[in-house]
Amino acid sequence: MPAASVCIISPDIVDLAVMAGVLSGKYPVVAARDCDEALRLMGSRRICRLAYYEVGQDADEAVADMYVLGRRGMEVIALFHPPCPVVVRQATAKGRIQGLCQLPILPESLLAQTRETLCRLRPAPNPPGQEPCILTQEEIDFLRDPLTLSTGFE
Fold this sequence. Notes:
This protein has helices spanning 13-24, 35-42, 59-71, 86-93, 107-120, 137-144, 146-150, and strands at residues 5-9, 29-32, 48-54, 75-80, 99-102. By secondary structure, the chain is of the alpha/beta class. α1 (13-24) links the parallel β1 (5-9) and β2.
């Protein structure tokens, strides 16, 4: 199973580059400067399971963007430089944002939080139009007793 993709949204190019660099060694990463760019990069595909969103100057806009990401099926973790905006804490308390993460963050902590979050998520649903894999009767028979079918090839 391929690793789940992670979306990182940060208006700070240095923070964006550092976080993308840390995570890209383990996970596919979509890095964007704002929510609109992230949505354009992902298109209609639901490729990301986790989004880190750095709260900038407008915390209300950030929370609205995080709701959009959540509706696309992503766990959203708000990144913030202290103090954490009240509107972000309220959205987290209501369960609309799944976590808070204070910046700066150590690379090891970012990797650990990402791994823990992705491990607790359910597997992504199949994309529309793609059915789950179903084995044929011949494949089932082979898995039960591979010698039965292999004798027919001699």
